[in-house]
């Protein structure tokens, strides 16, 4: 019994805070949640909004229609880069700089497998992700008793974007692959996670922060073999990205307009709006949804395990990215991290109890 209590206590980061420190953490958390609640809400169409109703049929979102047509033409045998640039020009999408043109991986896969094949692949990937997190939650202190609610929160975070209508979105696939990589990863056991992260990088360059984070954490543990593996993956991606940009430049014209800068510094509202509009939180009033975006970080911070620390750094890092980069029309970038984001909620009740007890000197 003593051993069990010790095992549970070790995962709680807040269990041994001094009363003054606990009060500061509580005050900071409340201030941040209040700031989120008072931040004006972005008025955009959420990812999970229905495409049609009983009596009317809404037009296909312009981004989704673009990726639909590119995949169709690539599947018919046309060259990806020429097709992508032609379609983006025709629809007044920017093609300069070259990063405005997506990596070809997803369009090629759609061309090969079609919508039905990609739907099956998405289902298999979702099952693998659930299995990986079932195992990880069961292996780390404090996770086993929260495994059921954790998986339910994973389903909620994953299911919003993982719909047939949205399978052409690169962020949906990259986000699910990163969730799988996160669930598979263990310090010293990273091979399968490496493969999943590599697949995510091949679809969307926004997966790079995940790879760099795991490289940094491996270096902190002085696991040089794992550090080198993640470093090799990052280097291979950079080389591949340069090749991609070279192919895009071959079909660009100096007359093509340049896209506006992604550095727009939207602040806390950019962070909360991205996650709200990419999940079912958009159904809630803004004053309630925005704090719920940030609350999982408290749970990740309290879970004193490798998974807890990784989640805290990962989601806080992407939150910072959403604050400084991307506009209101790129809110769906949050799909890169929303699958696992809300797992942290499973650990919030214990974190709150520990903070209150520490503040009371118990």
Write down how many β-strands occur, each being a DSSP E stretch of 2 or more residues.
Answer: 0
List the quaternary state of the chains. Answer: single chain
Mean of residue pLDDT values: 88
Can you count the helices? 15
The coarse overall form would be globular
N-C termini distance? 21 Å
Order of helices and strands: HHHHHHHHHHHHHHH
The structure class reads: mainly alpha
Radius of gyration, whole Å: 21 Å
Helix content: 55-70%
- Largest sheet composition: none
Number of domains: 1
Low-confidence blocks of residues: 1-9, 50-58
Kindly summarize this structure in a few lines.
This protein is mainly alpha-helical and 362 residues long.
Plain-language structure description:
The chain is an all-alpha fold. The chain has one domain (58-353). Helix content is 64%, strand content 0%. The protein is built from 15 helices and no strands. The radius of gyration is 21 Å and the shape is globular. 40% of the residues are buried. The model is unreliable at 1-9 and 50-58 (pLDDT under 50).
Give the key terms.
0% strand, mainly alpha, globular, 362 residues
How is the topology of this model organized?
Elements: H1 2-10, H2 19-38, H3 62-75, H4 80-90, H5 105-139, H6 147-159, H7 170-184, H8 191-203, H9 208-220, H10 224-251, H11 268-277, H12 286-302, H13 306-324, H14 338-341, H15 348-359
């Amino acid at each position: 019994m003593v051993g069990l209590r010790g095992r549970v206590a070790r995962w709680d980061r807040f269990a041994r805070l001094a009363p003054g420190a606990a009060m500061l953490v509580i005050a900071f958390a409340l201030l941040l949640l209040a700031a989120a609640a008072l931040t004006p809400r972005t008025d955009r169409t959420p990812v999970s909004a229905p495409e049609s109703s009983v009596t009317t049929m809404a037009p296909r979102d312009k981004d989704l229609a673009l990726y639909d047509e590119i995949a169709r033409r690539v599947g018919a045998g046309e060259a990806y880069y020429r097709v992508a640039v032609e379609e983006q020009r025709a629809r007044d999408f920017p093609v300069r700089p070259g990063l405005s043109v997506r990596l070809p991986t997803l369009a090629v896969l759609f061309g090969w497998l079609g919508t039905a094949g990609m739907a099956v692949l998405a289902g298999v990937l979702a099952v693998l992700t659930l299995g990986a997190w079932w195992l990880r939650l069961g292996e780390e202190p404090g996770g086993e008793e929260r495994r059921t609610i954790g998986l339910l929160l994973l389903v909620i975070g994953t299911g919003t974007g993982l719909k047939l209508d949205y399978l052409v979105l690169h962020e949906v696939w990259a986000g699910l692959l990163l969730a799988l990589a996160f669930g598979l990863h263990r310090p010293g056991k990273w091979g399968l996670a490496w493969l999943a992260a590599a697949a995510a990088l091949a679809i969307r360059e926004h997966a790079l922060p995940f790879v760099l984070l795991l490289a940094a954490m491996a270096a902190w543990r002085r696991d040089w073999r794992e550090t080198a593996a993640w470093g090799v993956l990052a280097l291979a991606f950079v080389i591949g990205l340069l090749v991609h940009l070279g192919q895009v430049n071959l079909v660009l014209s100096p007359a093509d307009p340049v896209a506006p800068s992604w550095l727009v510094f939207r602040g806390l509202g950019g962070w909360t709006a991205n996650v709200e509009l990419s999940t079912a939180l958009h159904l809630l009033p803004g004053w309630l949804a925005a704090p719920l975006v940030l609350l999982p970080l408290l749970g990740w911070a309290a879970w004193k395990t490798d998974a807890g620390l990784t989640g805290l750094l990962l989601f806080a890092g992407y939150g910072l990215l959403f604050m400084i980069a991307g506009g209101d029309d790129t809110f769906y970038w949050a799909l890169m991290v929303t699958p696992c984001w809300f797992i942290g909620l499973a650990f919030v009740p214990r974190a709150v109890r520990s903070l209150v007890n520490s503040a009371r000197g118990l």
